[in-house]
Write a structure and sequence with these properties.
This protein has about 110 residues and is of the alpha+beta class. It is about 20% helix and about 20% strand. The protein has two helices and five strands; from the N terminus they run αβββαββ. A hairpin with a 7-residue loop joins strand 2 and strand 3. The termini are far apart.
Length: about 110
């Protein structure tokens, strides 16, 4: 989508602090980190959010979680981490492009606060 921030980051027209990239997804550090380690993982193909996943496009989620596990090992996140995706305006989704926040290196209480 021409006006999507994360599509522009995925195509490289907006710079990011890349952590990982392959033909299907991109991981980059959050510009407003909420933990000592805070990165996002996005599919390169535009998907509005988790609420529009289908049988045809859901395989990207498995791929992204495999990438997250790989990055967690590389970043020594053995004490744990949180993976979050927000869905829709009331769910706190500020960019309408499927993305997963990975937060680590601090105690993450539940419920968040």
């Amino acid at each position: 989508m021409a006006d999507c921030l994360f599509c522009k980051i995925a195509e490289g027209s907006i710079p990011s602090n890349k952590l990982y990239e392959d033909e299907r997804c991109l991981a980059f550090y959050d510009i407003d980190p909420q933990a000592p380690v805070h990165f996002l993982v996005i599919p390169k193909a535009h998907i509005d959010g988790a609420d529009v996943l289908t049988e045809e496009n859901a395989d990207i989620v498995a791929h992204i979680f495999t990438v997250i596990a790989k990055l967690a090992k590389e970043l020594s996140l053995e004490k744990g981490y949180r993976v979050v995706t927000n869905v829709g305006e009331d769910g706190g989704q500020s960019v309408r492009h499927l993305h997963f926040h990975v937060l680590a290196k601090r105690s993450l209480a539940w419920p968040p606060g």
